[in-house]
Design a protein that fits this description.
The protein is α+β, with helices and mostly antiparallel strands. Helices cover 28% and strands 27% of the residues. The protein folds into two domains: 280 residues, Aminopeptidase, CATH 3.40.630.10; 71 residues, OB fold (Dihydrolipoamide Acetyltransferase, E2P). The protein has a nine-stranded mixed sheet with strand order 1-2-4-3-7-11-9-10-12, with helices on both faces. Strands 8, 13, 15, 18 and 20 form a five-stranded antiparallel sheet that branches. Helix 1 packs across helix 8, helix 3 packs across helix 4 and helix 6 crosses helix 8.
Length: 371
């Protein structure tokens, strides 16, 4: 295993953060990229990366890594260090207010124009040409801030991978995934290995999150060239929501790391007997059918339904109780679906999104992700 340290742009004299990446195997075959805690206060992925590192160390010592695997065990040194009044604030950069998992640059048109004369009828050759050009474009991206340099570093490590797994978590949630719709054929086995109850699919959900920045180039290039050259969906990229923020246990993390290794074995990046494909415990639904449950009034928040519950339209999911007037406001599900996530805070501000129900029909449009 090779350890590489990537210096980020210094935000002030005497201050410099770095990103550390761990590199297993050799380039030339399939490549998998796994990163943890892009939102610096989401820690289940960091513990999964710890266990994954141990398993990959053993596999490499046994000569069983057939492809290239890059592991970033802590993807956000900026967010990891942000505390205010003892509260960890790892989702947004305090300097800009930007979400660390948004606003990744798009090089689709520039790369397409630069490589078009080189493309032909060989799909594999086209993929190799596009990957080289994309990586060069990413690494040449000018940056003015520490946050931009972090984004460029992460994209430089991941943009040429066949598999990209971005490990996150929700507040309280079941295991679930986010992926782009064109990735679903390759993502479905991943969902099985991870035991995901739900995969939420969209094609361009808005604001350019990390996972979509890795996968969208392929379907966009296919659309750009209009079938003149074979361009496969050459990257499976998924956001893996490792349940809730407090689900940080060795038992869960070791099992999740083992499931990721089994998926990589199934894909051929790790040698040995190919594992059997597990049965599905969930399904795929449109991200546009994931309905946020909002509190219209402030008050104490009391949930009546547990995460993982199948609910019907009109079911009362929670109460919001005004402590002064004693008014009780019912929060009802707008659709039949799976209550897959809810907040861990128990006081709701007016307009606060407190839970999410995944329905089966696309009902929303525009930007589909939360802040």
């Amino acid at each position: 295993m090779q350890i590489v340290r990537h210096a980020l742009l210094s935000p002030a004299p005497g201050t410099q953060r770095e990103l550390v990446s761990l590199h297993y195997g050799q380039a030339g075959g399939q490549k998998a990229y796994v990163q943890a805690s892009l939102h610096g206060d989401e820690l289940p992925g960091m513990l999964v990366a710890h266990h994954l590192r141990q398993q990959l160390d053993a596999l490499e010592a046994a000569g069983r890594i057939s492809g290239e695997i890059v592991l970033v065990p802590m993807a956000n040194p900026i967010g990891l260090s942000q505390f205010l009044l003892h509260a960890h604030l790892g989702r947004f950069e305090l300097m800009s207010g930007e979400n660390f998992n948004r606003h990744y640059p798009d090089h689709v048109d520039a790369v397409a124009a630069s490589v078009e004369p080189q493309l032909g009828a060989d799909a594999a050759a086209n993929v190799a040409i596009l990957r080289r050009a994309l990586k060069a474009a990413v690494l040449a991206t000018p940056v003015d801030t520490e946050l931009q340099s972090l984004r460029r570093t992460l994209m430089g490590l991941s943009c040429d991978a066949d598999i990209v797994l971005d490990l996150h978590c929700d507040a309280q949630a079941v295991m679930h995934l986010y992926a782009e719709t064109p990735c679903w054929p390759d993502c479905e086995p991943l969902a099985r290995f991870l035991g995901a109850r739900l995969t939420l699919l969209a094609q361009d959900s808005g604001d350019s999150p990390f996972d979509e920045a890795c996968s969208r180039v392929w379907w966009k290039w296919g659309r750009h060239f209009g079938g003149r050259f074979p361009i496969p969906q050459a990257c499976l990229s998924a956001t893996v929501e490792l349940r809730g923020a407090t689900d940080v246990t060795h038992e869960l993390a070791a099992a999740d790391a083992g499931n990721i290794v089994d998926f990589l074995r199934w894909r051929g990046l790790i040698s040995g007997d190919r594992p059997a494909l597990p049965g599905a415990v969930g399904d795929a639904r449109p991200l546009a059918g994931s309905m946020p449950i909002q509190a219209p009034l402030p008050g104490a928040l009391v949930f009546l339904k547990e995460i993982g519950s199948e609910v019907q339209a009109g079911d009362v999911l929670a109460h919001v109780i005004d402590p002064v007037t004693a008014q009780v406001t019912e929060l009802k599900s707008p659709v039949d679906g799976l209550l897959f996530a809810r907040d861990f805070l128990r006081f709701a501000n007016a307009g606060m999104r407190v839970a999410k129900v995944a329905g089966r029909e696309a009902l929303r449009s525009g930007k589909l992700l939360g802040a």
